Amino acid sequence: MNLELVDQSIEYVFLNEKYGATGSKSRIFRGVKKDATTAGLVNFGKALAALQGDDLDDATLVQKQLLPMTDTQN
Fold it and tell me: Which tens digits make up the pLDDT trace of 27-74?
């Protein structure tokens, strides 16, 4: 099956005591370029965490792919 990538976003989870009982805060950035690298996304998350005075706990890439609409009847 050949899928077409139509959109992707990245979710970062930051840790800091200032975020209350859980100590974590999630931020989602939409419109991640299709050619973005893993290293680039991780480095961006680390830089953002440093600017906020947080620790980067996790990063999740979310992809939306278009499913082909082919005739499946035999």
Answer: 999 999 999 999 999 999 999 999 999 999 999 999 999 988 876 554
- What lies within 8 Å, CB to CB, of 52 at 6+ separation is 14, 16
CB count in 10 Å sphere of residue 50: 11
Beta strands 24-30 and 4-15 are antiparallel
| pTM reported for the whole predicted model | 0.85
List all residues 6 or more positions away from 65 whose beta carbon is below 8 Å from its beta carbon: 3, 4, 5, 6
DSSP structure string for 8-69 = EEEEEEEE-GGGTTS-EEEEEEE---TT--HHHHHHHHHHHHHHHT-EEEEEEEEEEEEPP-
